[in-house]
């Protein structure tokens, strides 16, 4: 009897967007208009690539970025929640599926000593090249029309579950915790015994309630959270059952 916890990262584990937070490293803590306006929907990773070039061109170093990243606040209650999950790892497998990047997530989790809580992190691969500039690649290629070009979280979840099943691991329940529009695809994949936990007031919650209004509700249960205390209360009930 094991539960799978799937976490988004930005605005879920941390209370900010790591990609927009990095702008604090830019001259005057802002990006030029031309760069800011160059974003095209569904092409966030390419946009961030241009942001990292701009930061590199302006002398922003790896250490500067790391310092900025490790000042991002965790969502209210999240530190306690991750501590609780860490103490109960025999009951929970725990993964992150995020549109951030490996470098940012690694820095943040290691600085707070939470990297051991998570079994796997699925996110865009990033490295500092020989020039010292950060480069980010798309996580994978996919055919899903609903998701951004670089990452279909539904595909990631399905492949992870298939891989686990081949190793003889199946889950009593999947709990999906997220906030954004790109979290809807994996939520649609959940079954009736699973639970989606959208963050209150964010896009995922709005999209799930829109589906219910359109009479095509998601199959899983839905429990809205506003702080990680709500998530912890639910997990405590789950392991008591």
TrEMBL record:
<feature type="binding site">
    <location>
        <position position="10"/>
    </location>
    <ligand>
        <name>Mg(2+)</name>
    </ligand>
</feature>
<comment type="similarity">
    <text>Belongs to the HAD-like hydrolase superfamily. PHOSPHO family.</text>
</comment>
<dbReference type="InterPro" id="IPR006384">
    <property type="entry name" value="HAD_hydro_PyrdxlP_Pase-like"/>
</dbReference>
<feature type="binding site">
    <location>
        <position position="8"/>
    </location>
    <ligand>
        <name>Mg(2+)</name>
    </ligand>
</feature>
<keyword id="KW-0479">Metal-binding</keyword>
<dbReference type="InterPro" id="IPR016965">
    <property type="entry name" value="Pase_PHOSPHO-typ"/>
</dbReference>
<dbReference type="GO" id="GO:0016791">
    <property type="term" value="F:phosphatase activity"/>
</dbReference>
<feature type="active site" description="Proton donor">
    <location>
        <position position="10"/>
    </location>
</feature>
<dbReference type="GO" id="GO:0046872">
    <property type="term" value="F:metal ion binding"/>
</dbReference>
<feature type="active site" description="Nucleophile">
    <location>
        <position position="8"/>
    </location>
</feature>
<feature type="binding site">
    <location>
        <position position="179"/>
    </location>
    <ligand>
        <name>Mg(2+)</name>
    </ligand>
</feature>
<dbReference type="Pfam" id="PF06888">
    <property type="entry name" value="Put_Phosphatase"/>
</dbReference>
<keyword id="KW-0378">Hydrolase</keyword>
<keyword id="KW-0460">Magnesium</keyword>
<feature type="binding site">
    <location>
        <position position="19"/>
    </location>
    <ligand>
        <name>substrate</name>
    </ligand>
</feature>
<dbReference type="InterPro" id="IPR023214">
    <property type="entry name" value="HAD_sf"/>
</dbReference>
<protein>
    <submittedName>
        <fullName>PHOP2 phosphatase</fullName>
    </submittedName>
</protein>
<dbReference type="InterPro" id="IPR036412">
    <property type="entry name" value="HAD-like_sf"/>
</dbReference>
<feature type="binding site">
    <location>
        <position position="99"/>
    </location>
    <ligand>
        <name>substrate</name>
    </ligand>
</feature>
